[in-house]
């Protein structure tokens, strides 16, 4: 990776950290999931509003975290809006593989701003910061709570 590309990636992360997208609570949300990274102290909650066709209509997050986890949450919420749950699972797998194992730049191109975070694999301690929102998202998807349903009770 050239120095220029690294700088570009850093800019993407700084921008998302400074102005996080979708930094709010969705209420009621159809899915919510929490993530906590004790190594860094990152604590985030992810909210989804999924329609009956299984498409994410809104995604948002709240919490406190370092620049990497905040940027990753911001980028993730932007990416998943308008996508099917199945597509999100594939995205998560691609990102996790990229961060943990490395990938070619061609494959990274499909990940958009997410590819900016792949640089963290050079800093193993920060990998958990980058993947944290995705684990919270997985938790939200797989423990579909139905905040909407529980309101009826
Ligand atoms: Zn962190």
Overview of the structural elements:
By secondary structure, the protein is α+β, with helices and mostly antiparallel strands. The protein has one domain: Sufe protein. Chain: A (Alpha-Beta Complex). Helix content is 49%, strand content 16%. The chain has helices at 3-18, 67-80, 85-101, 105-109, 124-142, 147-150, and strands at residues 31-37, 42-50, 56-64. The protein has a three-stranded antiparallel beta sheet with strand order 1-2-3, with helices on one face. It is globular. Residues 37, 40, 42, 65-66, 68-69, 129 line the site of zinc ion.
List the helices and strands and how they pair.
Blueprint: H1 3-18, E1 31-37, E2 42-50, E3 56-64, H2 67-80, H3 85-101, H4 105-109, H5 124-142, H6 147-150
Helix pairs in contact: 1-2, 2-5, 3-5
The structure holds zinc ion.
């Amino acid at each position: 990776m050239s120095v220029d590309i690294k700088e570009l990636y850093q800019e993407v992360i700084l921008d998302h950290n400074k102005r996080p997208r979708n930094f709010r609570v969705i209420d009621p949300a159809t899915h919510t999931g929490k993530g906590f990274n004790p190594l860094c102290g990152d604590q985030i909650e992810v909210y989804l509003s999924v329609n009956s066709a299984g498409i994410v209509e809104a995604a948002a997050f709240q919490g406190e975290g370092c620049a990497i986890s905040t940027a990753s949450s911001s980028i993730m919420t932007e990416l998943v809006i308008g996508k099917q749950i199945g597509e999100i699972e594939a995205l998560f797998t691609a990102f996790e593989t990229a961060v943990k194992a490395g990938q070619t730049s061609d494959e990274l191109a499909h990940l958009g701003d997410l590819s900016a975070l792949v640089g963290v694999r050079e800093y193993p301690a920060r990998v958990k910061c980058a993947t944290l929102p995705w684990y919270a998202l997985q938790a939200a998807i797989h423990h579909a709570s139905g905040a909407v349903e529980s309101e009826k009770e």
